[in-house]
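Subject: design request, 257 residues
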């Protein structure tokens, strides 16, 4: 019986999931780079880590890291030389949550968020996040640059804080909300992939909401918030990044800790 593949530790999902040749006169089969192969390229070629350091970061054997890296480089060469589209999806991986010692990033934003928003066990706090811009609910989840996070005790807002997403977008925003230990999200438009990621994280969604962020939270606490349970993100007639993010959720295989 073959040995099961060990999941590779991924710091964060890629912000772009595909590339197309500038001039493409004919349809060509895309090259598929898995998310763990992308991570090996990011760590070795972008961050300048050795293959040994890469293997430690991804929590795999050095020989496995070497094989993943060589395969990834060959795929990228195929895409460049043969003018083929490149897709980034699938693979055997699990996302770093910032809570464990295996996270090798010196400045891990998720670890910082867990520490900043740590809640002692047993404390009765409801944490609500709102996509935020200039006091209003930002209408495109996948492009939000900050969340306003509210801690609610005994039905009232006890404190609030604006948190920058540090340029993260698409699927990575669900990771940030998980790191923030958010229970509920209020937002405007949101794509199907992001909705699936939030549901998997156990975060309750109120989408299709507009207007003042503070007023929306007060309305939610008063059970008067008007939302759209069938909300979808419509981004000026173009394909929105949230829709592309669905490929991550579809491609990722279940991995046990």
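Subject: RE: design request

Done. Sequence follows.
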């Amino acid at each position: 019986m073959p040995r099961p593949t060990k999941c590779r530790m991924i710091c964060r999902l890629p912000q772009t999931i595909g590339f197309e040749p500038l001039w493409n006169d004919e349809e060509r089969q895309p090259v598929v780079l898995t998310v763990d192969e992308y991570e090996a390229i990011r760590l070795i070629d972008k961050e300048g880590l050795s293959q040994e350091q890469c293997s430690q970061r991804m929590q795999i054997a050095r020989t496995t890291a070497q094989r993943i890296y060589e395969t990834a480089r060959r795929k990228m060469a195929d895409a460049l030389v043969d003018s083929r589209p490149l897709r980034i999806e699938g693979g055997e991986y699990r996302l770093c949550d910032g809570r464990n010692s295996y996270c090798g990033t010196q400045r891990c934003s998720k670890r910082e968020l867990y520490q900043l928003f740590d809640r002692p066990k047993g404390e009765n706090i409801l944490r609500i996040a709102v996509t935020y811009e200039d006091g209003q609910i930002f209408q495109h989840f996948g492009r939000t640059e900050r969340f306003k996070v509210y801690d609610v005790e005994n039905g009232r807002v006890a404190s609030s804080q604006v948190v920058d997403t540090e340029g993260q977008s698409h699927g990575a925003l669900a990771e940030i909300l998980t790191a923030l230990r958010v229970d509920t999200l209020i937002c405007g438009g949101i794509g199907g992939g992001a909705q699936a990621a939030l549901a998997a994280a156990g975060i309750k969604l109120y989408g299709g909401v507009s207007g003042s962020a503070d007023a929306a939270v007060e309305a939610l606490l008063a059970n008067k918030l008007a939302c759209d349970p069938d909300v979808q993100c419509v981004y000026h007639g173009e394909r929105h990044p949230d829709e592309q993010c669905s490929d991550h959720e579809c491609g990722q295989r279940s991995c046990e800790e």
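Residues 192 and 243 are 6 Å apart (CA to CA).
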